[in-house]
Design brief:
Elements (H helix, E strand, L loop, with lengths): L6 E11 L2 E10 L11 E4 L4 E5 L2 E6 L3 E7 L5 E8 L12 E9 L5 E8 L9 E8 L6 E8 L13 E8 L1
Antiparallel strand pairs: 1-2, 2-3, 3-6, 4-5, 5-12, 6-11, 7-10, 7-12, 8-9, 8-11
């Protein structure tokens, strides 16, 4: 069972992430200290946890996980740092990071603002924390979702697929 000391349990639910269905937990955020904007809701199979990586307090996330953030009419940007700190890149093995940012404006069709893709195992410049920035026109009210998908492993290596997340901001 997930540690709910920092969250209020909403319930057990089926989560559709990346075209696959998972049964997991949905929680309302009470503390994500490495985020500048706290999430309204977080859906996951394994609870995100705050951990110290490379001297920084970061949120350790195991895909599949999604975060919902409120969007007000004055907001027009979503930014975050995402990556695979050295501690998570054990022996150079990591499946990578695959995610997307989706704007769900009230009365509008969902719109993919962009993708987050990192391959730290094969691309040295994609190791560590990377900045991502996504924009939309001001005037929208609704939700922006940050969705991380599990990447299937085909190399037979039993390595963690956890990633790190911080400095999440909607403004």
């Amino acid at each position: 069972m997930a540690d709910i000391s920092r969250a209020a349990k909403v319930g057990v639910m089926t989560i559709a992430l990346g075209g696959a269905l998972y049964t997991g937990y949905a929680f309302v955020s009470r503390e994500y200290s490495s985020f500048e904007t706290p999430p309204l809701e977080v859906r996951y199979l394994e609870a995100p946890v705050n951990r110290l990586f490379d001297g920084q307090m970061l949120c350790s996330v195991a895909p599949p996980t999604s975060f919902d953030f409120s969007v007000t009419p004055t907001d027009e940007r979503f930014s975050c740092l995402v990556g695979v700190p050295q501690l998570l890149l054990r022996g150079g093995h990591h499946p990578g990071v695959r995610g997307q940012v989706v704007l769900r404006g009230e009365g509008q069709e969902p719109r993919v603002l962009g993708e987050i893709r990192l391959d730290p195992q094969n691309v040295e410049s994609e190791r560590g924390m990377q900045n991502f920035d996504f924009h939309w026109p001001a005037g929208t009210t609704g939700i922006v979702q940050l969705i991380f998908e599990r990447i299937p492993r085909s190399d037979g290596v039993n390595a963690s697929d956890r990633i790190a997340l911080s400095k999440v901001l909607v403004d």
